Amino acid sequence: MAAALFALPLAFAVAPSAHAADPTTMTSGFYVDPDSSAKRWVAANPRDGRAPAINSSIANTPMARWFGSWSGTIGTATGGYVGAADQVDKLPLLVAYNIYNRDYCGGHSAGGAASPSAYRSWIAQFAGGIANRPAVVILEPDSLGDYGCMTQAQIDEREGMLTGALAEFSRQAPNTWVYLDAGNPGWANAATMARRLHEAGLRQAHGFSLNVSNYFTTAENTAYGNAVNRELGARYGYTKPFVVDSSRNGNGSNGQWCNPSGRRIGTPTQLGGGAEMLLWIKVPGESDGNCGVGGGSSAGQFLPEVAYKMIYGY
Questions:
Q1: pLDDT tens per residue across span 176-198
Q2: Would residue 288 show up in a list of annotated catalytic residues for this protein?
Q3: Is 72 left (phi over 0), alpha (psi -120 to 50) or beta?
Q4: Catalytic residues per the record (predicted)?
Q5: What is the rounded average pLDDT of the residues 94-121?
Q6: Helix (H) or strand (E) holding 244
Q7: How sure is the predictor about 222, in pLDDT bands with cuts at 50, 70 and 90?
Q8: Do 275 and 242 touch, CB atoms closer than 8 A?
Q9: Is 39 among the annotated ligand-binding positions?
Q10: Residue 146 is a catalytic residue
């Protein structure tokens, strides 16, 4: 249970996870992706003056690998990644980012599976690739915050895809903790997010994730996560652990979400820290899209100058 949940009334029990096993106790720490964009940049630019700082402060911190249409045969991709982590007794962090109509309202990361049925097949293979090896999965960032321009039929369709995804992990990946993404404190209020999480099948998930690819402080996210849990407890009779993306929240948010200047890396991946875990889910230095200090870039592109400045907070 997240330490932050102890303040909740005892009547609100933490709902049991769909998975009994704890992957954090099955491994000897978090996995450092040997092929992250930061690692690749450092390897390709050893004489660049920024390389030592990026190598020590970013490239060797455990971070999530994102999987989507670019990942090829998805079961092979997830299986290869968690298999490599398993070989060295480490816990891998994975992000599933391929839902139909992805980033439908925002647009900077638009794309995803070609249809709801294509997504169901993709996510089933994603979970099957992990199988019984330990893993942590962040399920579809932005998917529950991104409702502003959607019809009720589209919302129902999306929630059905997420519920189906959670069922696949329950069935095929018994040693995986899955966190259903819940946006960030600046998006939907806690009552609204609690309802969306519940309707998307949160009871089947291990917990929910906050602040993915955003900049709100860990304290702000912890307060929001606790507020969401109060709503879950009051409305539905259960609470869940939550994790916070701390990769870029060292200076907090200035109100912009798309490549704002002056941000800083946050607390490295760890257990605890106000949430169940603080995780680097977004890779510091990877662009949010063609905006802000990443003007001219595409979402996910590694920008060494942005990464370097983020280490020092300027």
A1: 999 999 999 999 999 999 999 99
A2: yes
A3: left
A4: 142 (proton donor), 288 (proton acceptor)
A5: 92
A6: strand 242-245
A7: very high
A8: yes
A9: no
A10: no
